Amino acid sequence: MVLDWWSHEIVRGHKLPLVLALGAFLVTFVTTRTITRLIRAGKGPFHNVASGGVHLHHSTPGTVLLVAGAFTEVGADGRSPGSYTGAALIGVGSSLVLDEFAMIFHLQDVYWSQEGQLSVTVVSLTAACVALAVVGVSPTGVTGLSPTARFLRGGLTTVLVIHLVCEAVTALKGKIPTALISLFLGPFAWYAAVRIARPRSPWAKWFYGPHRMERASRHTREFDDHWYPVRRHWDDFIGGAPSVASQPARRQQAR
To answer: Helix, strand, coil % (nearest 5) of the chain?
Structure first.
């Protein structure tokens, strides 16, 4: 069964470059976080890189690799070596850039702060989306399928569209981690999509009046009081414990 899935979905579905990009993305993120944590602890041969007194963040070479990979991939012909080279460059470059997403978002060095752990959330969400594209079935572009298989793929595509709508609503309601989890556990998104939004979310700003907003604030406080410690320990485990605590700002990102 695994070999059939690999043949139909990966090889015939032309997903080998995507698999390579995902592998490069994950390996680069783990390597980067390991090195930065060693530098922070003063262990090993690694150290920060500076040029002319300016600290060189790894998002800089990441941007170069990402741009180079994108143009290489666009210019590559089918399954040529250039396609795989571009995929690898995109995986490495995007990982280096997104690992410092919070710094780019805040326009200041918040890498080891609570706000900096936004990067971990973005990297996790990106990896989950790409992994879902890799392991999922391709609704089109796969040859040699029986009528029954085509019918099942059509039904699956319909369910997937509905699920993506629920994912979008969940994200707009400010429940980013829930949207991440529900990429693989669909009912979480279906449930979260009909639940009340977080007060700072775009959904609440667009559709909620004063009474609904107060209810959303109360619900959010109760939820964060219960789940915030769990979320904090998980982020610390993946990205490293922050040097600067900023609990109110961090709670805005919970759930």
So the answer is: 70, 0, 25
